Each structure stands twice: as structure tokens, then as C-alpha cells.
Amino acid sequence: MSEQRKHIEVVAAIIRKDNTILATQRGYGDLKDGWELPGGKIEPGEAHDVALIREIKEELEADINVQEHIITIEYTGYEKFDLTMHCYLCSLVNDSNITLVEHEAAKWLSKDTLYSVDWLPADIDAVDAIHKCL
Length: 134
Description:
Helices cover about 15% and strands about 40% of the residues. With about 130 residues, it is of the alpha+beta class.
């Protein structure tokens, strides 16, 4: 009998500022150095918007407004786990600054530079969806 793969459910913030989107570079774990949309795991019973606001506060010390759901991605290509990622369009509250708590770097990417970073595989479908919106 085969062992069941670990499944992780996360929320991701597509933080838009003017005509750019925030990309963050992971600073830890198996996927270290890969670029991603910021966010994180949903706690049991936690609503997606509440999880996203909490995660962005923890990771970037920033407050966000969660706007609309853009895409949900089911990704099974990682070695150690399967991923469900719910991506939401967001904006910073009062144009607040971000502080990198868990990430190595961050960049504001325009439509023309959206593919200039090495996105993690699960984030590619989200980036494709974002590209159409910018």
C-alpha cells in the first residue's frame, strides 16, 4: 500500500500597486530562493481572507485589503507534497511599506517584467492569470 502524499492548502496574495505586482523570494525550506506570491498556510477553520491578512502581516509586516479571487491552482509536481493555492488580488492599506521577515528579496514587477524572475512551478499559472489582468 502506498503512502498518501502530504497535501497543503495555502492562500497567496497578488498585491497590486499601480501597474505592478509584488513577487517575493523564499528565504527558507526546500523551495528556498524560488520566487513566489506571498502568503501561507490556512489554519483549520480559517477563512481565506483572514488567513491571507494574517500571513501577510507575519511575512511582510504589512496590512492588506483582500479584493477578488483570481485563480485556484492544484499543483502535484513538488517532490514532497501536493498543493492547493487560492490566489486573491490585494492592495496595501494606506500604501504601507513592506518588511521582509521570511523572504530574501522582493520586487515590484510590471507586465513587461513579470517573467523576469524564476517563479516556483506552482505559481506559474497564477502569473499567467496576472499577466492577462495587468
